[in-house]
Amino acid sequence: MSDEDGEKPHLLTVNNLTVEYWARRGKIRAVEDVSFSLDKGETLGVVGESGSGKSTLGLSLIHLVPYPGRIVNGTILLEGQDVLKLGKEKTRDLRGRRISYVFQDPMTSLNPVERIDSHFVELIRTHEPKATKAEATTRAKKLFKDVGIQPDRINDYPHQLSGGMRQRVMIALALALDPSIVIADEPTTALDVIVQAKILDLLKTLQDRYGMALILITHDLSIVLERSDKIIVMYAGRIVERASSSTLYAQTLHPYSQGLLKSIPNIELAEQKLTAIGGSPPDLLHPPTGCRFWPRCPYVMEICKIKEPPLLETSSDHLVRCYLYRGEKAS
Amino acid sequence: MLPVQGRKSKLNESEIVRVEHLKKYFPVEKGFLERLLTRTRKFVKAVDDVSFSVLKGEVFTLAGESGCGKSTTGKLIVRLMPPTSGKIYFNQTDITRLQREQLRTIRPKLQIIFQDPYASLNPRMKIGQAVGHPLEIHGLAKGAEEKQRVNEILQRVGLTPPEQFTNLYPYQISGGQRQRVAMARSLILDPEFIVADEPVSMIDVSLRTTIIDLMLDLRRDLDLTYLFITHDLAIAKYISDRIAIMYLGKIVEMGEKHEVFSNPLHPYTQALMSAIPVPNPERKRTAIELKGEVPSAIDIPRGCRFNPRCPYVEARCKVEPELMAVKPGHLVACYRIEN
Amino acid sequence: MLSSILPGLSTLVKRGLAGWLIVIGAILVVVIVVMTAISPWIVPYNPTEIPSSPKILAPPSTQHFFGTNDLGQDLFSRVLSGGGVMLQVSILSVIVCLAIGVPLGLFASYAGGATDRVVGLVMDSIYAFPGLVLAIAIAAMLGRGVVNMALSIAVVYIPSYFRVIRSQVLSIKEMSYIEAANAVGAKNRTILTRYILPNIVPSIVVVATVNFADAILTAAGLTFIGLGVPVTIPDWGQDLTSGQRLLTSGAWWAITFPGIMIILLALGFTLMGEGLSELLNPRLEQ
Question: Cβ of B89 under 8 Å from any chain C Cβ?
């Protein structure tokens, strides 16, 4: 990663992250050699479909990859400290306080037998044992105001809230300890489109107010193009393209990214001809040799089938993993 | 075989399906004590007076957020459940109150594709059996002839070579392939009308267009008509000829696709369209803010059911508006169009 | 046949612990079945004949591997041939349960409504009784013998089948592929037999294996209190009963060996059941 030389350090720097899952039938490389950085206040979009490894990537950042997965290589530097090398105590401290995670499904992420306020109390007091129940509840109510829920709902049980409200509660929980980074894993999949928009707008408002960085993990390219500063496109565990969102929109270089963009309907276009990406999602147990995408690539060349392309730099903020751009220097 | 009862109505011959004032109320289960103490029954008014018709050969979309009643409407049309009230006409025949046996003769023509490709196939039936079973049920083919028709239809939906698939179980093929199998199963009976209930929402984004384009090709080749149900307005725009937007059990706007998308008139439609993400970082977001959330279908607001959230609510909204024509073919249930 | 069994076994074993459980359990059961079946040809002594010059209560020796009982009968021969009753009772009870419990469970829970409520009520009432007590009561009414024992066990066990089937049917009933079957016009009967039943077979199998194990132990219990088979048939349960009396005389062998066999047979079925339920449940790991 040469573009980091001589710049001020980033809030988060991930280098060569590789995560494997050991299944009965074999080994799967869910994430392979992923590197990127994130600055204060930035929004990073991680976009990919099934098998891309994006969720595994998110969980790795808080060192929470479920068994039988293991992080086998790489460093995750949060403000200079390697997250993966922290001891148990410090790792627990990290989660929720320095990096928080908003899980995908608001329906099942809250404990159904606990009232909302006890979720907050438990969270806050785990990290700040000196805080009293009253203090924690007051802070929770303030967060409720931030996320747009009436404070008196704090005494409700999760099932008394709608899906959109539950997601807001999750976001409030994620913000309770003032983290520097919030990771939102498919924050909108279980929600209707109007609520989706509200939640995403909310995240932006809170970002502006509190200055936290946001990582949006989603399969929805429209969302990341609209709302992130920079984007990572993942396929079969690798980064295939990385750029700022305006650059990516103007110059979609990787055939997968192009295919993805051409396959999603754009409501603002009058007539649209959509094209799908041929083939099927990658088989991570038996990945193709060479470039993981070649069986579906319309521009495949012989070399693609033999050797995996490295990440090539086409401009200072644009990386592509594709031999079509062979003339560029390797990153 | 019982004759199909029903009066032929004097309706438009090109309407393949027509629903009139369709309602489906689900009773809310109450506890023993509650039943003793209270008199009133509560209902989930999933579909609350819906009327529209689908013309032969078109793709008619029912769009809306979850809980608006679109899926229930689709299932009512294919008579998977009886409506609480209202009428359903198929090819000008009243099929509303037909019983199970009478429906069997019609079923081949009215088919449905479900949302979840993982749940809509019997895990214990091989693909070939699953697709051929409808033929056996209706006594249309057996043995070698059945096999041949199964292979034909599998090829048509893009599963080639078909022999590669007939002996597999659903868990051995991908989600997209399963959806194609589900389509094959619906098509083998030579239907005229297909309800597609969110057929691509559980499929990878980059593969959705293959299924959608397949559906459009099949419409052309097999003379089909679709009722397409979705919450994704972007896909709706791509595939529909006409579209109806539903909110809390009622249609709030309906019309030709281009008309509704370029000129949405109902405040809900406008809010919905402004909320859809657009793959363009340069786009300036002008999302319309809606107050509150969708109310429960048990306690539907009085008057216009959208009024608690509507930015333009006024006095006359106390009376629920009917669908009114702004221009021929574009109907809106909102008093503002009278201005 | 062996050549097709061995690959089957090896795939089972590859499945890890669950596979091993099934294999070990199956081996136990098969060995016992075979042993009982060929016992007429391999017994060193006649298991039911009372010898004219009995060697009463002789401890285990080279002549009598498991010793003799108070009638001078060779216990090794009795152990070899005594499994028959237990096996017959358990197999018969499982057959009755399947024949009655499965259709009942299927129809009642598919039909829903009042039918489901009423049948469920009956089943729950039976289920509420302590099993052994109920079995004893019914066996006492019906009398002795293999068939009656099997029937009383079956009555006690049918509610378990019903419950398991009911919960499965209720969850399957809501699945889209059932709706799809309705949409293509399948008759209710077809839906039950070709769409629902094949999907609940795994759970039925699990209940059946537990049924087997339980039946064996219950049969032993029934025999113990005198509701078993006539003395002329060699039976572990019998030996258990008489062996218990002989313990005070210091003849530990009279109860131990039949007891071990009962445990092994029940264990065999239990292991199979455990292994099967392990196998059939985490199918979700796909």
Answer: no
Using a CB–CB cut-off of 8 Å, the residues of B that contact A are 65-66, 174, 176-177, 204-210, 212-213, 231-235, 237-238, 258, 261, 271-283, 285, 287, 289-290, 293-294
| pLDDT digit string (tens) for chain C, length 286 residues | 555 566 666 666 666 777 788 888 888 889 988 988 888 888 888 877 777 777 777 788 887 788 887 777 888 888 888 888 888 888 999 999 999 999 999 999 998 888 899 999 999 999 998 888 888 888 888 888 888 889 999 999 999 999 999 999 998 988 889 989 988 888 888 899 999 998 888 889 888 988 888 888 888 888 888 887 877 788 888 888 888 888 887 878 888 888 888 899 989 988 888 888 777 664 443 3
Q: Which of C177, C186, C198 sits opposite B137 (nearest CB)?
A: C186
Q: What separation in angstroms does the CA of B124 have from each of B63, B119, B127, B171, C195?
A: 33, 12, 9, 10, 8
DSSP annotation string for C201-243: HHHHHHHHHHHHHHHHHHHHHHHHTT-S--TTS--HHHHHHHH
Cβ atoms within 10 Å of C187's Cβ, excluding its own: 14
Do residues B174 and B155 make contact, with C-beta atoms less than 8 angstroms apart?
no
- Find out whether C68 and C79 touch, Cβ atoms under 8 Å: no
Q: Calculate how close chain B gets to A49, using CA atoms only, in Å.
A: 6
pTM equals 0.83
* Residue found by looking up tokens 């107050």 in the block: B291
DSSP class of residue B294 equals P
Closest alpha carbon within chain B to C197: B124
Main-chain phi, psi angles of B92, to 5 degrees: 65, 5
Between CA C76 and CA A119 the distance in angstroms is 66
CA angle A156, A160, A164 (to 5 degrees): 105
Which residue in chain B is spatially nearest to C284 when comparing CA positions? Answer: B171
The DSSP 8-state label assigned to residue B113 in this structure reads E
Q: Note the Cα B101 to chain centre separation in Å.
A: 24
User: Which residue of chain A has the CA closest to B237?
Assistant: A267
Task: Among A201, A225, A259, select the one facing B280 at the smallest CB separation.
Answer: A225
C-alpha distances (whole Å) from C264 to each of C18, C93, C261, C273 are 18, 19, 5, 14
Of A49, A220, A245, the CB nearest to B281: A245
DSSP secondary structure, C48-92, as one string: S---SS--TTPPS-SSSTT-B-TT--BHHHHHHHTHHHHHHHHHH
Interface contact B42, partner C, CB < 8 A: no
The pair of three-digit structure tokens given for residue B95, joined into one six-digit string = 């099929």
How far apart CA A202 and CA A223 sit, in angstroms, is 14
Interface pTM, i.e. ipTM: 0.81
Query: Sign of the C-alpha dihedral, residues A66, A69, A70, A76?
Result: negative
DSSP classification of residue A295: G
